[in-house]
Specification:
The chain is an alpha/beta fold and about 290 residues long. The protein has one domain: 3-Layer(aba) Sandwich (Rossmann fold). The protein is built from 12 helices and 8 strands. A hairpin with a 2-residue loop joins β1 and β2. α3 crosses α4 and α5 crosses α6. The longest helix is centred in the first third of the chain and has 16 residues. The N and C termini lie far apart (about 60 Å).
Length: about 290
């Protein structure tokens, strides 16, 4: 009998698993494919499964490296007090171990993962060839007004609890309610239940903006056109990033909400391939000088 979580089991079993230090435990990493390394950092209250609908396609072109961030998914909770900087240090250390000091890699960071990715790029400027922010927090811009999230803690009836998770996906993550399928609900329920890291207080600051201002790592941005964390003024987010990187590559995913990689995977992949394959000005100059 087919189960909604079958794709998770498939990619989990197909992965190469690594564990690196994190607090008194370990940070769990999964790897698929071969080629240039592409690091995928998931969002807050999430896990590697935030990328479940794009891993297969990306693994045809890249060596895809997807961790569970500290305190989320299967990874151990980081030492307290934690900050964006301390979390990024754990991730950077893990990346050095998992990638074995190979040539520079690209990072794609979704939501809270984009915030952490910015701090990793600050710590490893020579290793990060490009940082792609996907609906990233930590930019210090006003959040769009939205309905309060439903409280699911304490709901004993399993179906009512899943209904609360479904509603939260509709409020925050996925714009079109018809795209909130059983897999999305099961992932949301599992990820939220396992989350031990309070990411929201960090995501509501301008810590990513400050990290980006202190590094020159090439930058790209992909946002869902209807991202609930933005509201109606997506142009303000693009303008901020463009002030930091005048040569910014920015794409919006038509009709998609915050979790664009799940809601509109084909459109998201089209945008992602476009920005990953676009060479930065610095790379172009380097090639010209070498020639």
């Amino acid at each position: 009998m087919k189960d909604a979580l079958d794709p998770v089991r498939f990619f989990d079993e197909a992965s190469e698993r690594h564990v690196t230090p994190c607090g008194v435990g370990g940070m769990v990493w999964r790897v698929w494919g071969e080629g240039a390394t592409l690091v995928l950092l998931h969002g807050g209250h999430g896990s590697w499964t935030h990328w479940i609908r794009v891993i297969g396609e990306l693994a045809r072109r890249y060596r895809v490296v997807a961790p569970d961030l500290p305190g989320l998914g299967e990874s151990a909770k980081p030492p307290e007090p934690y900050s964006a900087e301390s979390l990024a240090a754990i991730v950077a250390q893990g990346l050095d171990i998992v990638t074995g000091g190979e040539p520079p890699f690209q990072i794609v960071g979704f939501s809270f993962g984009g915030l952490i990715g910015g701090h990793v790029a600050r710590l490893l400027p020579a290793r990060v060839r490009k940082l792609v922010l996907v609906g990233a927090g930590g930019l210090g811009l006003p959040r769009g007004p939205r309905e309060e999230m439903w409280r699911w803690h304490g709901i004993e009836d399993p179906q009512r609890r899943l209904a609360a998770h479904r509603r939260n996906l509709e409020i925050l993550m996925i714009h079109d309610p018809a795209k909130v399928d059983d897999l999305a609900v099961r992932l949301q329920a599992e990820n939220a239940t396992r989350a031990r890291l309070k990411s929201r207080p960090i995501a509501y600051t301008d810590t990513l903006r400050r990290a980006l201002a202190s590094t020159e790592v090439p930058l790209a941005g992909i946002w869902g056109e209807r991202d609930a964390t933005v509201g109606s003024d997506l142009a303000e987010f693009e303008a901020l990033l463009r002030r930091l990187r005048p040569n910014l590559e920015f794409r919006s995913v038509a009709g998609a909400g915050h979790w664009a990689a799940y809601e509109a995977p084909d459109l998201f992949l089209e945008a992602l391939h476009s920005v990953l394959e676009q060479r930065s000005t610095a790379e172009t100059r380097g090639s010209s000088a070498a020639g």
